[in-house]
Amino acid sequence: MNPILVQVAGLEIRAFTFWIGLGALLCAALIVWRGRARPMAHLDVVIAAALGGAIGARAEHVALHWAYFSAHIGEAWSLSSGGLNWHGALLGAVFGALSMARWRRLDAVQVRDSLALCLPIAAAAIWQACAAATCGYGIEVRTLADYPAWLALESPDIYGVVAPRLNLPVIGIALAALSGALGLLLAWRKVLSGARLWLLIALYALSMAAVSGFRAEYVPYWFGLRADQVLDLIIALWAAALCFRALSSRPQERKR
After folding, report:
1. Low-confidence stretches of the chain (pLDDT beneath 50)
2. Pairing between strand 221-222 and 11-14?
3. What is the secondary structure of the chain as a DSSP string?
4. What pLDDT score does 232 carry?
5. What are the tens digits of pLDDT across the range 201-227?
6. What values do phi and psi take at 151, rounded to 5?
7. pTM for the full model?
8. pLDDT at 82
9. Where are the domains of the chain?
10. CA distance linking residue 186 with residue 191, whole number of Å
11. Which end of the chain is more exposed for a tag (fewer CB within 10 A), N or C?
12. 43, exposed or middle or buried, with CB in 10 Å at 0-12, 13-18, 19+?
């Protein structure tokens, strides 16, 4: 899987790279447009987020599969064919973006609100990339006849074995779309400014904890759950705490 989508003058762009790159470009354009009063400073935020996200995504994947990568160190930082985990991408991107925003003296609330709008775009792009590159695939089901056509399909696993499986990418894209609709509604109503990012992360992470229970790729098990489910729940709790902190600090700010 992971077919070549673009081939120009010897340059080949595979499906996984294409969709991740498209999501990153859309997010970059959104952040710079919303910060058009200081476009270069916001471009620095984009670059920091991209670097942090790429490093975090790959570092998490390597850590979760250290039994393999300890014997194949040369493959640890190959980013072109998958092997990127969303928890590390999220933490790296948010840390990079907010650190750069602080260094460039940008409005942290405005940057967080821009990132909130980027979250569903990035999530949808990641799921589409997974659909094209055989990652994020679902568990096998007995027969396609037991499920609606959109919920199950014949698809390969990482070893190329084709079987009827739950169509998790379409569920992930739908959840990203719901997150995007909520983000747009909050922005339109101009409510929860500064807390929107944390709220959307918490809700999306909870939805991913449910979806992860139906994933078929190998990951270690922690406390009787898949490691990615545990990380989903940790991310949800972390974001919920930051959302509560952002909301509780607003009355104090108004009093000053």
Report:
1. 253-256
2. unpaired
3. ---EEEEETTEEEEHHHHHHHHHHHHHHHHHHHHTTTSHHHHHHHHHHHHHHHHHHHHHHHHHHTHHHHTT-GGGTT--TTS---HHHHHHHHHHHHHHHHHHTT--HHHHHHHHHHHHHHHHHHHHHHHHHHT-SPBPB-S-GGGS-TTTEEEEE-TT--EEEEE-HHHHHHHHHHHHHHHHHHHHHHT-STTTHHHHHHHHHHHHHHHHHTTB-S---EETTEEHHHHHHHHHHHHHHHHHHHHHHHHHHHHH-
4. 98
5. 999 999 999 999 999 998 999 999 999
6. -95, -20
7. 0.92
8. 58
9. 4-137+147-195
10. 5
11. C
12. middle
CA-CA distances (angstroms) from residue 156 to 87, 131, 146, 254, 256?
A: 24, 10, 19, 55, 59
Q: What pLDDT is attached to residue 83?
A: 78
**C-alpha–C-alpha distance, residues 72 and 157, integer Å:** 21
Give the whole-angstrom CA distance, residue 30 versus residue 24. Answer: 10
| Helices 86-103 and 227-255, axial angle in degrees (round to 10) | 30
Distance, in Å, from the CA atom of 186 to the CA atom of 193, rounded to the nearest integer, reads: 8
CB atoms within 10 A of CB 189: 8
CB atoms within 10 A of CB 47: 14
What's the confidence (pLDDT) of residue 255?
42
At 127, the amino acid letter reads: W
Per-residue pLDDT at 12: 80
Residues 35 and 48 sit within 8 Å (Cβ to Cβ): no
93 with 49: CB under 8 angstroms? yes
User: What local confidence, expressed as pLDDT, does residue 90 receive?
Assistant: 98
CA-to-CA dists, residue 119 to 59, 74, 123, angstroms = 20, 31, 6
- pLDDT given at position 80: 57
